[in-house]
Each structure stands twice: as structure tokens, then as C-alpha cells.
Amino acid sequence: MSPFENKGLILGIMAGTAGISLMLIWYRKIRKPGAAVRIPAFIDVGNRLNSVGLKNEAPNEQGAVMVLHGRQLQILEKLNGLLLSVDELKREVKFLKEAIPKLEELVRNELQGKGDVQRISPSHRATKRRKAETASGATETTSSEEAESEGGYLTAHTDSEGETEEEKGCMKSPDAIVKSAEEEELFNLLQKVDNLHKGSEDDKREGFRLLLEKDDEYENCVDFLWRLARAYGDLFEMTTDAEEKRKYVTDGKIKAEKAVQLDARSAESHQWFAVMCGYMSQFESVQNKIRNGYLFKEHLDKAIELKPQDPFLYYLNGRWCYSVAQLSWIEKKVAAALFGTPPTSTVEEALQNFLKAEEMHPGYSKYNYVYLAKCYKDLGQKNNALKYCDSALSILSVTNEDKEAQKELEALLLTLKL
């Protein structure tokens, strides 16, 4: 409705009201004195205009005119308010007409997952708030009013916005799922071979077979490689054939060396590379034996630095110290000629390492007791030597290493009882 039409409507209403007023004055002039004034038609009109009614007017004409003018002003005020409301309504309609195309585009983009503007309903904001409070030990209930969304609608992204980072992490891509499945398979394999390594000789052979089957698949996995090197060491210990021993230790050294190259911070990789170097010295010339001795010590020290709580490493260090202390004069001269400075150690240093292993793990191994007895014998402490011989005798010979320790123990006891 245009402003011109509004003004016409107002003038029409005013003219009609003035006419009614004149008719009422004329009627009052011709009515009988004392007669009751009743204008049900006018009252009915007033009721339709927001229950604005006319009361019985004063008997005099001047009072009636004043009352009617007052009512006219009230009616005009009501009409003016109505017109203002109509103008406001028109503006709202115009705004909605302009917003509808944008709203359609927004909803379309959100349904396609491309919405830049997303609305979160109070219920979902409450969900996020409750999750945060639950993490700190607080609980809170949400009223039913919060179940309604702002503006009375929910977007396609509302649910996802209420998710925590942990929940989003559970929604993995197919590549991540495949990777997780492979990791789980590897984990189960490594756990199984670890258990087999602690078992009988047949168990160790089975563990070696399982690892060998997966060698190509996990050839670049550090945790797999050092376990395969350890399995080669198990077979080296179990076999008595010299050629088989050489083959096992050669292949095992290659696997351990690759593991070290892949991860220089892997204590187990350094540990089993050192062990392979020690095994190799049994088949090498004096020159290569000394070279492997240097490699053994270098990687053993690194393993102890990375894993200082492992008694096996101190046992190995004790073995190295004792072997160096027993080097002949010619071997020391060859080492000095080849490497400038020969390795040096003493029986006392070897003893401290064996004692450290025993302290960390009492009854750690039969061989550890045998070497403790050897150290005390070399230091002239016969009683302590016999004490540890008795400790070694208390341990049953299960593995080939235990059987070899038993042979050395029997020979040592003969020298101590002389």
C-alpha cells in the first residue's frame, strides 16, 4: 500500500467519523428530554476496533462532542499504530523475499558438504559442553528446550560439528584402516615370536620359520629385523654343525646391521648386532676377530646407553671385558698395529659387570655364575669362586648354552679343588 493510499484511507475515516458526530448532535436535538441514549451500532463498531467502545455520554451536547472528539483521537492513534505495523510487516516481507534465494543456496551447499556457514543447534552446543564437562568430572543435564535448533532447522553438518577429536579419529579413511590392519598383523606376529623365543628349541625353530616367511614383507621394519637377527642367533646356539653356524651368524649380522642403519636409536638392534659380531669372531682370523671385537664394544655401549636396565647387556659387557683381559701378548700387538690402540680391560671390570647383572636379576643365567666364579678365581678369592660355582650348579642345564656352561663349570671346579 503506497503512502498516498494510506493518506486517503485516513481522510475517509475522519470524514465518516465527522458525519456520524453530526448525526448524533442532530439526534440529541430532536430527542425527548430524559430519554436514555443508546447507540448499539456505534458501540458495535468500537468493539470491532480493539474493543474500543463508547460509554453513555453526558446529557449535554457539549460534553458529548468532547467525548466524541476524544474517541476520534483514540481511533486515529490506533489506526496510526496499525499503519506502522503494516509498514513494518512490509519490510519484513521484503527482507524474506531477498533472503529466500540465499537460504536456498546455503542449504544446497551444506547438503553438498560445501557450506562455509554452519549453524549449531543449542542441543549440539550443549552436547559439546557436556563432553568437556564430563572430561573434568562434571555432569549436566540438558533441558528439552535445547533439543530445538536455532531458527527451527538443522543443517546437514550439525551432527558432525558436535564430534570430539577422538570421535573424528575413529572415522578413518580406507588407507588408514588397511594400514591399521597391517600393523595389527605385524604386532601379533612379533608377539607370537617373542613368546616362542622364550620356549623350547622347537618353539625357537618355529619362531624363526614364521619370521623367515615374512622377511620380504617386513624387510624395512626395524622391530622385525632385530627379531630375525635374534632368531638367527637362536639357531646358531642350537646347531652343532660349524658350517650351519657360520651361515646363521652371517645372515643374522646382515639383518642386525640393516636394523641399526634404519634406526640408530633402537637398543635391540645395537644389541643383536653386537652379539652377531661376537659370534663371528669364532670363525675369523686374528685381524677380523679384533675388528669384530671393536664393533662388539661400540654397539654394546650404545645399547647400554639406550637400555640401561637390561641385565643381559651387562652380562655381555662382562664377557667382553673378561675376553680382553685374557688377550695374549701377540693379540694385543696385532690390535695395536691394526687399530693404533688395542682394547683394554681388566678382570675387575668384568667382575663388576657380572655382579651388576646378578644384582638386577638374581639367578639371571648359569653362565653368569660361572664367569663370576672365574673372576674370583683369577683374583685369588677361592671361597667366593666356590660360592658362585654352587650357585651355578643349582641351575638346571636346559639350553645348549647351559650345557656349555656346565662343562666349563666342571673344569673350573677341578682347578678350585686342587
Structural overview:
It is a single chain. The chain is mostly helical. It has 18 helices and no strands. The chain has helices at 3-30, 40-48, 61-111, 122-135, 158-161, 165-170, 174-197, 201-213, 222-238, 242-262, 267-280, 286-306, 311-325, 329-339, 347-360, 366-378, 382-393, 400-416. It is elongated, with a radius of gyration of 50 Å.
For the report, how would you describe the main beta sheet?
none
Q: Calculate the mean pLDDT score and round it.
A: 75
How far apart lie the N and C ends?
Answer: 130 Å
Question: What is the tally of helical segments?
Answer: 18
State the low-pLDDT regions, or none.
31-58, 114-174
How would you spell out the order of helices and strands? HHHHHHHHHHHHHHHHHH
Number of strands: 0
Fraction of helical residues: over 70%
Strand percent estimate: under 5%
Our Rg estimate from Cα atoms comes to: 50 Å
Based on secondary structure, the structural category is mainly alpha
Gross morphology is elongated
